[in-house]
Design goal:
47% of the residues lie in helices and 20% in strands. It has 122 residues and is α+β, with helices and mostly antiparallel strands.
């Protein structure tokens, strides 16, 4: 039995759709590979930038003073390490209560360090 023109057109559409789908899948796969490569390169760049800042921050670590060791002068703004996880600014009120610079709430400080000297205007 000879196929009709309509059957041939239907098979041709099916065949072309399969080929287009395969070509699209290949394109998508290649695009995904490019996207993954670009993402990895971007993440590595971001980490390298962050690493420089972390190294600068760690240089400050040597200046941390435990509140058990010594306290700053009253009402003097200092850098504080609070709740064993946050770095912020604060001050000590009457040698007993730590206040945060962002809000006037009492904060739990474990370590502190003096603020760096301001830049010198030339």
């Amino acid at each position: 039995m000879k196929p009709t023109d309509e059957q041939i057109r239907t098979e041709a559409k099916s065949y072309s759709k399969q080929n287009v789908d395969q070509a699209n899948n290949i394109r998508v796969t290649k695009l995904q590979a490019f996207a993954e490569t670009d993402f990895i390169a971007g993440a590595k760049w971001a980490l390298s930038q962050l690493s420089e800042h972390v190294q600068e921050f760690h240089k400050l670590e040597d200046d941390w003073v435990s509140v058990d060791e010594r306290l700053p002068e009253d009402d003097r703004n200092v850098i504080v390490f609070q709740d064993n996880k946050y770095v912020s600014f604060g001050w000590l009120l009457r040698k007993e209560t730590w206040k945060g610079s962002i809000s006037d709430e009492t904060i739990d400080v474990t370590h502190w360090q003096p603020l760096p000297k301001p830049p010198i205007k030339e």
